[in-house]
Write a structure and sequence with these properties.
Number of helices: 15
Distance between the termini: 65 Å
Largest sheet: 7 strands, mixed
Low-confidence stretches: 1-8
Helix content: 25-40%
CATH topology of the domain at 436-560: Methane Monooxygenase Hydroxylase, Chain G, domain 1
Mean pLDDT: 93
Radius of gyration: 23 Å
Bound molecules: flavin-adenine dinucleotide
Order of helices and strands: EHEHHHEEEEHEEEHHHHEEEEHHHHHHEE
Strand content: 15-25%
Shape: globular
Oligomer: single chain
């Protein structure tokens, strides 16, 4: 194992600084929200650096998604036609789906601005399916009262490929395979980022005048998830540690995904399978929905269906499976993202069953931000799944991607404005990276539990107590288990285990956020299902649960939701 001058193992070694000292705007992340933030900041002619734990355009939830955006184009609105869409109707759909705990001011901004950001992608070269008269073809997806969802040709691969090309064209510098592990704060102002090279374990310091966190959320928190690249809550933890407030983190969106033996199959979820006539059975061959919604059966809401599968599994009646005889060739043809993956695994889905399991799809809360995506901490903005913006308790389908575009762009613009009037921090101080590497090393030891084992145990706690069914006793136990896991010494022997150990720290902190917020919200709303408080309680809970760092740990409070701005003109 190579060693540095002080005899430390190489994987804790500090790395040389980037030439040129501080950058103007540093964007953490490499997916939808980060790309839009970096592009907007670069348009101001500033020096922009993207820091991605993975590879820009290939990491995060965005690449697994369909990248289908939902918008209401004002030019397609026909005020004299009562069937026509309108900005106000879209606003109402978002508010209703979010069960009124989304930020109405941000929802208005979103509805108004999303068409322009989607047109930006078209102008950069993304092609969308069009009607014969040249309009964008839009269809109604789950929860929308009007057709609004566009289909990008080539899905996320083409969208992200286009964004990456544009970033390079605009001179954005990209540092990949480097995880942000700490935000530098000087005199109350965010002044840069400490990064960990996940391949070599080297620690680097990146001074910056302004930082945008667009590092996604915490899709790794549960044992099953629909995205293929897993985020570990780093973004929320980075913001929280720098003083940002978090809200709505108790709200998560679960879907169902196929599972074959021990292999889970990341995919867009169960909606198309049910739409085309799929049914769900327990281990005795009984239709499970009979026990939850006997009238609508598989036509029930996604929340009910996912909850039913989770409850059946917990009651020992799993695995929950399909029945191949329910589907003919034409129906299989309608679910290609599932059949292609089953085919690749050599599974004869026409004749053999497979399992459906609840999977975390998206996190709906995050850093509390204003309409400029500002966190309230000088020098720090947040967007995409790192922030709490338009979703509230539930996500209206196809609105996450345009949310990343709108608030990513706003974050990038505001960060650029800030950078232009801020004193430029100098390059990293001599020895600063070495000190950061030392501080990181202090968290871990050479003996102790394997971080990969701890990672699994956090997920087991999340699955049993923080998932689709929550109650006071379970949340109390979860917090006790999180506390106990924090005290376990973590063994770090090489770069891979160092990276895992850093992720374990983030996941533990994230699990605590979710448990504390879920504990505080003594009602049921969205997929936050409290068995001890089964009803939605608008009288007490049209409020946000806000988390903030304090000397005693996570401080929990309830905050009023701001009033909506006046209606937009169509
Ligand atoms: C299967 C699936 C299908 C979906 N389909 C749609 C759809 O069609 N339409 C829609 O609107 N929404 C859809 N969604 C939701 C949507 O894709 C996501 O909400 C959105 O892509 C999130 O984008 P993001 O940029 O915020 O984060 P992510 O896409 O999650 O990206 C996070 C980025 O941050 C980086 N990162 C993480 N930690 C660090 C760190 N410590 N340091 C540096 N970088 C870090 C990651 O490498 C990654 O680049 C879907 C989601 C899934 C899972």
């Amino acid at each position: 194992m190579p060693r540095d001058a002080e005899g430390s193992r190489y994987f804790y070694q500090s790395a040389p600084e980037l030439p040129g000292g501080a950058v103007d705007v540093l964007v953490i992340g490499g997916a939808a929200a980060a790309c839009f933030a970096a592009l907007e900041a670069a348009k101001a002619g500033l020096q922009v650096l993207m820091l991605d734990k993975g590879i820009v355009g290939r990491s995060g939830s965005t690449p697994t998604s369909g990248s289908a955006p939902a918008v209401c184009f004002p030019q397609y609105v026909s005020p004299s036609n009562p069937e026509s869409d309108s900005l106000e109707r879209f606003f109402e759909d978002l508010r209703a789906t979010g069960e009124l705990v989304n930020d109405p001011r941000l929802v208005r901004v979103f509805v108004d601005e999303a068409p322009r950001r989607v047109l930006d992608t078209a102008n950069m070269g993304v092609r969308y399916v069009r009607t014969p008269d040249g309009r964008f073809r839009q269809h109604a997806t789950m929860g929308h009262t009007r057709p609004r969802t566009l289909t990008p040709i080539g899905r996320s691969r083409s969208v992200l490929g286009t964004l990456r090309r544009e970033l390079l064209h605009r001179g954005v510098r990209i540092v990949e395979r480097t995880a942000a592990v700490r935000l530098l704060v000087e005199d109350g102002q965010v002044a840069g980022v400490v990064g960990l090279d996940v391949l070599t374990g080297q620690v680097r310091v990146f001074p910056a005048r302004a930082v945008v966190v667009a590092g996604g959320s915490a899709t790794a928190l549960f044992p099953y998830q629909s995205a293929s690249f897993l985020t570990t809550g780093d973004a929320w933890v980075l913001g929280y540690e720098a003083g940002a407030r978090l809200a709505n983190v108790e709200f998560m969106e679960f879907t169902l995904i196929p599972k074959l033996g021990r292999t889970i199959i990341p995919s867009g979820g169960i909606s198309p399978y049910l739409t085309f006539g799929g049914k769900l059975y327990d281990r005795h061959g009984e239709r499970i929905l009979k026990r939850y919604d006997p009238e609508r059966m598989e036509g029930a809401s996604r929340g009910t269906i996912v909850y039913a599968v989770y409850s059946e599994m917990q009651a020992g009646r799993g695995p929950i499976t399909n029945e191949p005889a329910d589907f003919n060739e034409a129906q299989w043809h309608e679910v290609p993202d599932i059949t292609q993956r089953l085919d690749a695994l050599g599974h004869d889905y026409r004749n053999e069953q497979f399992e459906w399991v609840p999977a975390l799809h998206t996190c709906l809360g995050g850093m509390l931000v204003d309409a400029e995506a500002w966190t309230g901490v000088p020098g720090l903005w947040a967007a995409g799944e790192s922030a709490s913006t338009i979703h509230g308790a539930n996500r209206l389908s196809s609105c996450a991607i345009p949310d990343c575009y709108v608030f990513g762009a706003r974050a990038g613009r505001a960060a650029a404005r800030h950078a232009l009037r801020t004193y430029q921090p100098g390059p990293a101080a001599p020895g600063q990276a070495a000190r950061e590497a030392e501080a990181l090393r202090a968290h871990f030891s050479t003996n102790g539990e394997q971080p990969a084992d701890l990672y699994q145990r956090i997920r087991e706690v999340a699955w049993s107590s923080l998932g689709l069914s929550r109650d006071a006793a379970g949340l109390h136990n979860a917090l006790a288990e999180i506390d106990a896991l924090r005290r376990v010494p973590v063994a770090v022997a090489d770069t891979a285990s160092l990276v895992k150990a850093v992720e374990v720290r983030s996941l533990l902190q994230t699990a605590e956020f979710v448990a504390r917020a879920a504990q505080a919200r003594t009602e049921s709303r969205g997929q936050h299902h409290r068995t001890d408080f089964p009803a939605r309680d608008d009288e007490r809970w049209l409020r946000w649960v806000v988390l903030q760092r304090s000397e005693q740990g996570v401080q929990v409070s309830a905050a009023p939701i701001p009033s909506p701005e006046p209606a937009l003109q169509d």
